[in-house]
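agent> step 3/5: call structure_predict on target 'Probable poly-beta-1,6-N-acetyl-D-glucosamine export protein' (Mammaliicoccus sciuri).
agent> reason: downstream docking stage needs a structural representation; sequence fetched in step 2, passing through unchanged.
tool.input:
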Amino acid sequence: MNRKHEITYARAIFCLIIVAVHILSNYLRDVELQDHNRMVVLTFQILILFATPCFIILSESLISMVYKDKLPKNFLVKRFKYIMIPYFTIGTFYVYTKYKVDGNEETFWQLFKENLLIGNWYGWFVVVIFQFYILHLIFHKALSKANPVVMLVISFAISLAHSYLMYDNDAYTNWWNEFYPLFHRTNILYWLFYFVFGYYLGRYYNEVLTFVEKKFMWLVGSLAAVTLLVIYSIYQNDVTVVQSNRYDILLYSSLAFIFILVISKKLSKFNISFLYFIGEISFFIYLTHKIMVYYMAKYTFHFIDQFFMYNIATYIFALSLSVGLAVVLSFLPLSRFIIGRNSINSMIRGNYRVE
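tool.output (status=ok):
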């Protein structure tokens, strides 16, 4: 398969957006705003929540695209090495920070169990991605023979029903909280539609993208209409929870994914080194940026009353710290088990080779 640069660009865009989501969370937590202004910022934040579902969708699309008919040997083992080992490595540092710096009264092991083993920290999305790999291993043959439309409709109904009931039905929520052993956001029922959507998009990637490019204005119109529905849900139904497993962004996130993919394909005609570089280390940025935001916000807090100054400064410094750390770590042996699979080291060595 020829390397599709738009996928790297799209991955970078999703990554950059999710950093903004968490910086806005910091801002809304630390500043007192009038109700109207708070709702404006909150609405914008909810509208960019699609980045996490899109990143998760992309993980399945890539697998489906590359391995259409047969999976390689040690499929799960290789993926465990490159996403779960970084999950535990960086997650352990996160837990240690929580234990030492925050002066938490719980023991380190208690925090390790409650956060990493259960998935109750911002790296929970990795648990979802690994579940996607397991589902792909089990169901890829069945899905390849099934009717895509039927499977999409069924999975959408399941994910929508589960997401809505978890939000609105206490009895349903309490049942899952009692019997589901992991962090509730990792429940695959939230993400089943995204898995099926990602599978078929990857399997029929060229056909889908060709069709959407021809009908691009229809995509824009559909995305605009669904965006209005999300805004309606925020203001009329008072659904203001900032979580990427919201029931009202299932369709919105899927359309946003295709939209960003088409835009990325147009951008791929240009050599945008920044996007390519960010795309290569996006997984590491996902796992470390919130730690960086935590520390940088202490310094940029002086600008808290200036919305743009605070958020832009925190964004630039937090992103720079994650990128810089990735570059430094890339020179260490076995760095791929910390950063994830990437080509940073080879790019740098190639650029600075001494003849």
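agent> step 4/5: record observation. Residues 5-351 form one domain.
agent> proceeding.
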